[in-house]
Amino acid sequence: MNSSPDITESDPEIALQALNLFEKRFGTSPIVAHAPGRINLIGEHVDYLDGVVLPMAIDRRAAVAIAASKDGRTTIAAPDLGIEVAWDGPPPRHAIETSEHRFANHLLGVIAAAGGTSQPVSILVTSEIPAGAGVSSSAAIEVAAGAAWSVFQGTNPDDPLRLARDAQRAEHEFVGTPCGIMDMLVSAAAEADAALRIDCRTLEFGAVPLPGADRLAFLLVDSGVSHRLADGGYADRRAACERVVEALGISLRDATSEMVDSLTIDAVDRRRAHHVINEIRRVDQAIVMLGQGDLAGLGSVMLDGHASLRDLFEVSVPELDLIVETASHLREDGCFGARMTGGGFGGAAIVLADPSRLDLVRKTIEDAFQARFDRRPDCFRVRSVEGVRIATGA
Ligand code: GLA
């Protein structure tokens, strides 16, 4: 990770924005770190089941600025959301329950996971990652917070696994989402122009190079249906899979569909487990396709993944299905494939297209969405970028 003493022109705009907002609000110079959101190419709902995943960090980042408090109070400000919350003394070591201030739990959770402090601090968050689109705006904030906090505390910020684990603990213990490690680890460890293969059992990770931006474009299509993983559907899917693991006596990573079929279990639980077993295989297939430069093959694997999330895991919504179905009809017209990305229950789909045909693919999807849902979805091209960075060492 780069550690430079001043915000430089090579730092992204969002870092400068965090610095300016912080100085305006608190009248002092902070440490700033910034981290990306992500899409997941394949490997959905398998990270909390020892699976393998293939996410990619995207060129939308969140920045967190931290400095010692000058007024004896701990303040967390998120001007983008119009939120500011403060306490006398150091940051609380427990989650905040009041709904309008729950946002602070992402920060308080990371600080607590890193060991807490007896010092009052000032913190400001700003982000260009759409919230509720399933592209990990929360993980980006937590990872950026962890990196800025490490520098602030004089500890080593160059440990992606520790940053990811602290962020995950924040989600589990403060935010209330029993998520896996994928989102935070890719935000911490991603490399540019590559996806990140993460083995969620061993926690080994490594870059998988992607074709150049002249060969492959990633279009993010936000369904506009806001997903909230803390609402129960996610925990419900996780619990179903854990029941099957319990009945099998082995991890779904090591199980076959036949083994699952031989169990006497609930039919819904069985479907969930089938998704997981096949999805882990699809990740390996996708990596082979990428290695061979077979983008049509990669697209087919993604379409299969979507069908499984829709029919077996049941975490898609009609808006996402329509985007993916429309994309699948454009396979002769420059579209390789598409799928919903992230936890589901809303959020976004990713569409892989030939960059020279992207405008047509995009317009066709927007028009089809408009015809069915009477509004245009937010669409933007995303690029693969590097993970968390420190913008200023103050
Ligand atoms: C959310 C979670 C991740 C992962 C995905 C589904 O993004 O935060 O840990 O489980 O859903 O793949």
Could you characterize the architecture of this molecule?
This protein is an alpha+beta fold. 39% of the residues lie in helices and 22% in strands. The chain contains eleven helices and 13 strands. The chain has helices spanning 13-26, 105-113, 137-153, 160-175, 182-189, 233-248, 257-261, 267-291, 295-311, 318-328, 358-373, and strands at 31-40, 52-53, 55-68, 73-78, 83-88, 121-127, 194-199, 204-209, 217-222, 335-341, 348-353, 378-382, 389-392. It has a six-stranded mixed β-sheet with strand order 5-4-6-3-1-13, sandwiched between helices. The protein has a four-stranded antiparallel β-sheet with strand order 10-11-9-12. The chain binds alpha-D-galactopyranose. Residues 40, 44-45, 47-48, 179-180, 182-183, 229, 342-343 line the site of alpha-D-galactopyranose. The site of alpha-D-galactopyranose (GLA) has 12 residues, from helix 5.
